[in-house]
C-alpha cells in the first residue's frame, strides 16, 4: 500500500471511511477491509461507532499494521473537554493508542491555540501518535501551523473532481501536511459520470475507480466510505493503471461552483 509521509508520520493513501456504519455491520466491514489490504481506518466521535470500529480492528489480528484515525467533535475543543473526550474515544476503541487524532471541525468560540495545546498534550502523554485537522481553510491552516506545539500531519477535507480544492491543497503542501479527501467519489455522484466512465472503459475500470485514481495520482489520500463488502476491493484496485496528463486535466474540468456537498451552519468561510 502506497503511503504519504508528513512530518515523519506515514498515512496509507487509501483508507476506509466509516461514517453511517454501526454495530456488527461496521465491525464486520472493518475487519474485512483490513483482510483485503486496507491499512487506514477513519472514524470520529461524531459517528458514534468507535466501539464497533475498534472491535473490527482488533478482530483483524493486524492492529500493529493499521493506522486508526478518530476526530474530536467541535463541541469538545476546550482543553478540559478535549482531554476527557479523547480518553473516552480511546476507551471506546479499546486500542493501545490512537494513531492520528484530528480536530473534526473548527470552533471559532474556542481559541485554536488552546485546542492545539491540548491536542499536543494528548500526543505527549501517549494517547495519540500524531495530530491533524479537518475542514480547515487556508487561513486556519496558517494559524494552526503558527500556534501548534506539535507538527500537524494532515487536513481532511471534502475533495472530489466536482469541487476545486487547489488553494487548500497548496496550503497543505506548503506546511508539509498530507491532504486527505473525504467524500472522494462525491457521495456516489462519480459512479454515474459519463466522462469518468468513458475514461475508465479504456482501462477496464469503473467511473468511481477513475475518480479515486485521479486523487491519489496527485498525492491526495482518500477515505471512501462504503457499506458494501464488494466495493472494498473495487476501491482498492486503483494502483494498476495511471491516467494520462490529458485525462487528469479533463477530469479537473468537472469542478464547478456549488460542487460542495458537505456544508453546515457551523462550517468555516470556505476558500
Walk me through this protein's architecture.
The chain is of the alpha/beta class. It has a single domain, classed as Alpha-Beta Barrel (TIM Barrel), CATH 3.20.20.100. It is built from 10 helices and 10 strands. Helix 2 links the parallel strand 4 and strand 5 (67-72). It starts with a strand and ends in a 19-residue tail after the last helix. The mean pLDDT is 97.
Brief descriptors of the model:
TIM Barrel, 271 residues, alpha/beta, 40% helix, globular
What layout of secondary structure does this protein have?
Blueprint: E1 3-6, E2 9-12, E3 16-17, H1 23-36, E4 40-42, H2 50-60, E5 67-72, H3 79-93, E6 98-103, H4 112-124, E7 128-134, H5 138-147, E8 152-158, H6 166-174, E9 178-182, H7 194-203, H8 207-216, E10 221-222, H9 229-236, H10 245-252
Parallel strand pairs: 3-4, 4-5, 5-6, 6-7, 7-8, 8-9, 9-10
Antiparallel strand pairs: 1-2
Helix pairs in contact: 1-2, 2-3, 3-4, 7-8
Helical proportion, percent range: 25-40%
Question: Spans of 5+ residues with little confidence (pLDDT < 50)?
Answer: none
Domains, number: 1
Q: What proportion of the residues form beta strands (DSSP E)?
A: 15-25%
Overall CATH class:
Alpha Beta
Sketch the major β-sheet: 8 strands, parallel
Determine the CATH topology: TIM Barrel
Gyration radius (Cα, Å) is: 18 Å
Compute the average pLDDT. Answer: 97
Strand order of the biggest β-sheet: 3-4-5-6-7-8-9-10
- N-end to C-end Cα span: 32 Å
CATH superfamily: NADP-dependent oxidoreductase domain
CATH architecture: Alpha-Beta Barrel
Helix-strand sequence: EEEHEHEHEHEHEHEHHEHH
- Number of strand elements: 10
Question: Which descriptor suits the 3D outline?
Answer: globular
Tally the helices.
10
Structural class: alpha/beta
